[in-house]
Amino acid sequence: MQGVINVLKPSGMTSHDIIKRLRKLLNIKKIGHSGTLDPAATGVLPVFVGRATKAIEFFEKDDKEYIAEICFGITTSTADAEGEVVNIYPHPFEINREELEKILVEFIGEIEQIPPMYSAVHYKGKKLYELARQGVTVEREPRRVRIYSIKVMSVSSISAVIEVICSKGTYIRTLCEDIGEKLGFGAHLLKLRRTRSGPFDIQNAFTLEQIEENIKNGTLEKVLLPVDKYLCNMPAVILEYPDDSFFIKGRLIHEDFSHLAKQEGKFVRVYNFEKFLGIAVVKSIEQQVVLQVYKSL
To answer: What CATH code is carried by the domain that includes residue 88?
Structure first.
């Protein structure tokens, strides 16, 4: 058994809870995911099963899309609705859409974020949230992330819903908190839904109930899809060998790959006839374009 399931994570479960549930449903231990979601968050969680777990590295740097609801006027210890209230803005205020859109422009591009204490970032061998639960606060190094776009979806008197397209590692909680600080009212993240992670879209995601139903009906193939389906950003190379024994990690494949000359250093998907074998790297050796087997999948 191998492949990828685009899971629609519900609120109230950790990403690891999803893995534990699927291990039990599929009766297989080798399962992993890319792009952790906070317990309260919902949305796309790509889950890799069997040999497909070896492909996780090709998805770890994927851009993400989120729908976030911001509550203004209140800050919390975790920058989201799960934390304790730290401060309540004492004066009446009302969010102005035009002013909000003007502020959001300042966050587009490469920005620095300080990881929240309630996060899985490691500090001297411990995760920050473990220290935070002990009441310990440590200095964190800012991290560079990129915000590609922020769109205002709706605005009420004290809240707003925004769509964010961003790079890996962006903390939407921190973004909401920083937006509130810029406006002068303070803010926290009220709700978060991930609508896309790289090639995984929420329109094609499956709930745990749908996955379980397909397992019971013997139609697992409807939700467990081949990993190469999601690697379409890599060029495909189709070979015609009598068997697959040639595809061994590190081995060079010599064919006429001149059409890949501009792809030097990049990954390609390799097929033997219609069978997907894995990933290779395009290299130039002695003025000849060759493929070097990187990973069998």
So the answer is: 3.30.2350.10
